[in-house]
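Input sequence (269 aa), recorded before submission:
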Amino acid sequence: MAETSSEGDETKETDEGDAPPASDPRGDAPSEKAAAPDEPTADGPEAKKPAIFRRWMAYAVVLAVATGIPAGLWYYQYAATWLKRPPKMGICFEGLKSRLREPVIVSPSEPYLDRTTNETVYLTETQYRAVQCTETLTEGASARLARAYAEEDPDKQAAALAAAVRAAPEGPDGDKDAVGMWMLASSSLDALPETPARADAEREADQFVGCRFDHPRLPQCTSRPPFPFAIYLLGGVGGLSLTLVVASVLWSSVSRLATRKAKPTPKKA
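Predicted structure, token format:
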């Protein structure tokens, strides 16, 4: 009887050890922590890299070109006509301005040969130095100034000085003529009696050089048109378009570089 009981106990232990584990009541449902197979991880090999170039960038570049080129050409044309910078002049032009403003109280005694007419005119010492200073300008500039100084009538001299300024030709050499002659003529006009003819001559000379150049030390041009607002508008649209494209390219490039250098996170067991 004892042996039979022992064998029964061993059979019971064997049956309990070989029993299959209890089945999960939830069935074969995947674990909540398991990642979905169709969703790539941020650092996985299938992670989508941000695109650098997009379709809207092509439209932005076309818009920038369509607005920027007309704005640039329009600005160049306006600047070449109304925003020209005056050339730098020699020290003799600046040094004689204060002396030419003094009224003439002595008779002219310095002879000057006008090579265009082979005539000799007599000037004061300051006037003679001013004419010599204009020898560095284009041909004929010194002769025009000398003939203007030779006029004895103040009104005729004022008109001749203004004409000498307005006779400056076009081009870089003519620009030096305009500024240099204006510096000397405007100072010489201050030495003449105040008459309507002198006022008209000053206005003509000032407007000629003021409308030809743009500088704070020169007279202001009353006929200069305002800066076109359309240039601001077109240039702003073109600049904004290019700025957005460049910023987007830089941002996408940095994002791709950061994604490439990121290390994969270790997976939990």
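Checked by second reader. The chain has two domains: 53-83+217-260, 91-212.
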